[in-house]
């Protein structure tokens, strides 16, 4: 595997930003589709949580091992505490991750996304972001995984402002002073809308029994059970930490359909 830190100017964000990229090399035994010439290649956009950054997955899990094993390019963007939204008082991070970044990856990595080979996943805030992105672009992402996701955004933005002045300021910057989550940020509404479409992402959700976000995950699970998605929900003992998210990674790759080598 090769690892790159890419620094570039985002027109959407109006600033310099950076991503961490894991790239399979030619000797990879998983034999991904040829790199270069815009050949189809498995690409996973892997999203960090609140207070995190683009290096988190690489420093706290064995994602490099799994990417090598299954033959994926893994792209980890940096979005601060934006909740992967086009912020009310801040940059348009949703548009950046969902649209501009894939275009930049195609240009700089010389690959071509195909729907069957394009995936998105994340933890906590990133689980919310991954689900929002996949449900907003079902024609582009074939599958999504959310680990300990903040899937009930309405609840999250009701609770965040009560926890500290800092979190209140963050919440206002994201959704505005009224603390109302717009329809395009409500995963329950998005899932119901996408359920009527021909193309739907396959969906995996995992959460620990003792995680403080468990009730929101169970609420989302109950909602998804009534919709025609290829969908799996898994719970087991665990809290909101890297041990649980590490355990979720092999389940994700299995669900995404990667073949063990």
Question: What secondary-structure arrangement, pairings included, does this model have?
Answer:
Elements (H helix, E strand, L loop, with lengths): L1 E9 L4 E9 L19 E5 L8 H5 L2 H8 L2 E5 L15 H17 L8 E6 L1 H12 L6 E5 L5 H11 L1 H11 L11 H8 L7 E7 L5 H12 L5 E6 L5 H15 L5
Parallel strand pairs: 3-4, 3-5, 5-6, 6-7, 7-8
Antiparallel strand pairs: 1-2, 2-4
Helix pairs in contact: 4-7, 5-6
Q: Concise description?
A:
Strands 1-2-4-3-5-6-7-8 form an eight-stranded mixed β-sheet, sandwiched between helices. By secondary structure, the chain is an alpha/beta fold.
What can you tell me about this protein's structure?
The structure is a single chain. This protein is of the alpha/beta class and 261 residues long. The protein has 9 helices and 8 strands. Strands 1-2-4-3-5-6-7-8 form an 8-stranded mixed sheet, with helices on both faces. Helix 4 packs parallel to helix 7 (187-194) and helix 5 runs antiparallel to helix 6 (165-175). The longest helix is centred in the middle third of the chain and has 17 residues, at 93-109. The protein is globular, with a radius of gyration of 17 Å. Mean pLDDT is 92; it is low at 32-40.
Question: What is the gyration radius calculated from CA atoms?
Answer: 17 Å
Low-confidence regions: 32-40
Strand order of the largest sheet: 1-2-4-3-5-6-7-8
Helix count, DSSP H or I runs of 4 or more residues: 9
In terms of structural class, how would the helical and strand content be classed? alpha/beta
The H-and-E topology, N to C, reads as: EEEHHEHEHEHHHEHEH
